[in-house]
Design a protein that fits this description.
heterodimer; A: mainly alpha; 7 helices; B: mainly alpha
């Protein structure tokens, strides 16, 4: 932007900040290409258009807060830069989220290998539970079903902790420390 | 590639809406600030319906001034500064000594006239040669609400004293400023 354009931008921003609505259209015509060009330097073409639009709306929504003592171009580009950074962060998060949602297999049912492992773990857990005192086994089963026997909360929590510790040691005894 | 004309037009409309909305938010915040600022004046002045109307009118005119902008907003700002003393002086005095405040109001309108003189001087100092009707209407309405809120306990005579004070303080200040520029 040349010095004449910069001066005009300063005058239009100042007028709009003071509530002079006649400065709106010339300012819009001046800002839109400026913001599109600025965003295109920082983002891909598709993202740049969106970011420039968001920046433009943000600038106009905050135009009445503009302090005429400040440089209008620096203020406008500061707001736009912030918006572009926000847009870039949002786009990156969207991509990360999308990458996390892509299934690695078309068939989501468990494989025979997974079924065999689950079956083995289930029988190992059954045998570990069978080795516990009946009270501990009942406590753990109630806890796994989300049930709460007629006991105060802290008492039940303590019992669950103790039963889990015993189950863990029984599990290690049956299957080794790994 | 340049975007189509219709999308630029819809963007222009959206930008205009964003501007007006931003201005409205600022106006509501200023109105709320003005309300809080003048609240001690209301609480000190008997909490009567006319005082409540003045308080609401003051907050409203400040909010409208911010929304409209231009000379009207500048006038409202000048009116707020000028009306601050007449509005809050009774509240300050009542905070220091309630008996003294009642005594001063009972002795006649000179107490309000004093506030009016200060308001007139402040208004005269804040005005500029090019200020037109929007500035003066904004300043007059704001000052009227703020100063009336403070002078309500003195009744009609207090209001007359206030008006005389504003004229007595404002006209010479304006004349001196005009002569010096």
């Amino acid at each position: 932007m040349d010095s004449r354009g910069r001066t005009a931008l300063q005058q239009e921003m100042t007028a709009l900040a003071r509530g002079d609505r006649s400065a709106f259209d010339p300012l819009f015509r001046r800002l839109w290409p400026l913001l599109r060009g600025f965003a295109a330097r920082c983002l891909t073409a598709a993202d740049a258009e969106d970011a420039a639009q968001e920046a433009l709306l943000l600038i106009f929504s905050r135009a009445s807060e503009f302090d005429p003592g400040r440089d209008a171009l620096a203020w406008v580009l500061g707001v736009a830069g912030w918006q572009i950074r926000t847009h870039r962060t949002r786009a990156r998060r969207r991509r990360e989220l999308a990458a996390g949602e892509v299934p690695d297999r078309a068939d989501r049912s468990p494989s025979p290998e997974q079924l065999a492992i689950a079956h083995q773990l289930s029988s190992a857990l059954d045998s570990a539970l069978a080795g516990l005192a009946p009270g501990d086994a009942e406590t753990l089963l109630a806890y796994s079903r989300g049930e709460r026997p007629d006991l105060p909360g802290p008492t039940f929590r303590k019992r669950v902790e103790r039963a889990l510790a015993r189950l863990r040691s029984r599990w290690r005894f049956n299957r080794g420390p790994s | 590639m340049a975007p189509p004309e219709s999308s630029v037009e819809s963007l222009r409309v959206a930008a205009r809406r964003a501007y007006e909305l931003g201005r409205l938010k600022g106006a509501l915040a200023r109105g709320a600030g003005a309300f809080v600022l003048a609240l001690p004046g209301f609480l000190a002045c008997g909490r009567t319906p006319p005082a409540a109307a003045c308080l609401a009118g003051f907050a409203l005119v400040v909010a409208i001034g911010r929304q409209r902008g231009g000379g009207f907003e500048a006038g409202v700002r000048a009116g707020v500064v000028a009306g601050l003393l007449p509005c809050l002086l009774p509240a300050i005095l009542r905070g220091i000594d309630p008996v003294l405040c009642d005594l001063l109001f009972a002795r006649g309108p000179w107490f309000c006239a004093l506030g009016g003189i200060v308001a007139g001087v402040v208004l005269g100092l804040r005005s500029r040669a090019g200020d037109g009707r929007p500035f003066w209407s904004g300043a007059a309405v704001t000052l009227a609400f703020a100063a009336t809120l403070g002078c309500l306990p003195a009744g009609v005579m207090g209001f007359a004293g206030l008006l005389a004070g504003v004229v007595a303080g404002g006209l010479p200040t304006l004349a001196v400023r005009r002569a010096s520029t």
